[in-house]
# Entry
Amino acid sequence: MKPIVRRTVRAILAITLATLAAVSAGVLTPAAPALAARSPERIADDCYNARAAQQGGLIYWVPECEIEVLSSEEVYAAPKVVGQVALACNSSGGSTTVNASTTSSTSFSFGLDIGGKHKFGNLEEQAGLKLGWSWSWSESRGWATTVNIPGWSVGWIESRDAQRKLTVNVKADYDDGRGFAEVARKQVIYTPNTKRDNLWLLRSRPLSDWEIKNRCGRSAAAASGEAGLKVTPAPSFATSVTDSASPSAAPAVVPDAASASAAPAVVPDGASASEVSAQGGGYGPDFRFWVKSQGRLLSTYSSKCMTVHNGASADGTRIVQNDCKPDRPKEQLWETVNLTEGPPCCRVPYIMYKNSKTKKCLDISGNERDDGLNLELYTCVPSAPVQSWLAESVTAGMPPYYDGQPAFFLRNKKTAKCGALDFYNGLLKESSPLKQYPCHR
# Structure
């Protein structure tokens, strides 16, 4: 046998014998260190979903994690539409019994070694969990109520899971020979809160003209009371809301004012970025979007209607958002006057919005140009640019269906800004003044 061949055979035999010796001794060669540090989010997720590994007769978790709890807060998860959706396709409305149920489940397996060493600081106390090898929880709850639906409205039930929001520091050992080398600071995780009930809310809102046509099979102009109440299965997906929210009192019939928990200072009502901006293939609820609802202008965000405050007719009367109710129809009804301008090739379809009760028009207060100025009522002047509005089309989704439907920005001709809810103080508040803000997409 040639020398080079003999050397190769000896090397192979040496490697094979070393491997067999390691296996027979129950010892595995440590994995090579990671080439790059994992992101904090990845570390926290891996610790929340640790995987089991085996070395000889020893079973352990990878990664093994040390957790320090910095803060714990009781919150509610994003809303889920459950049960049936009740649709009143008539002018008088009606009532129906809606049944709903939801099942919540989770697993929790921050890694403990086989000796069960406690490495969780005060996590067990603050998270309310019984820590061990792993922990799981599942619960089914049911709810039934008689739902009163106003005419040409939709009603549904939402459920929000009770949770604990934990801010933690994490150190993770990925069994790669580096020890607790991976560190994630101030990561937010959520665990179920079995000490509190889930939050159930009865919700309702008016139907848009598009929904009256496509869900009730009627045009809004010809809508009358011959139709009835329809009950359909609820959508199986949650809403686009991503931030957890706190409960608020829900009125018995038209609970459109469920407020959210504290959030960044610029959005006191709890709106998250996903709630007020573009989403996926279209738009979700946005504080600048409106839909038509039988002569009313309905906010896609709050499900409230553009209203002349207290029905007053004086110049300068504030324009606010109020629940869309039959007892104040005319102060919520807006006639449109076509102010189309420009040559035939390039006409711009400006519109003047005239209130049906006061016969005065939608205007902007003060110097007319600053962000945050109130929308107001003023004597109609067709030649005034500040009373000319451009309805720019957008596709929006409203609960509970979230199917895309025609909506629009209201862009003012003079200021090039849009009529919107009060972003800083009143996204969901009754009688909150409407403002003008930039028309960001």
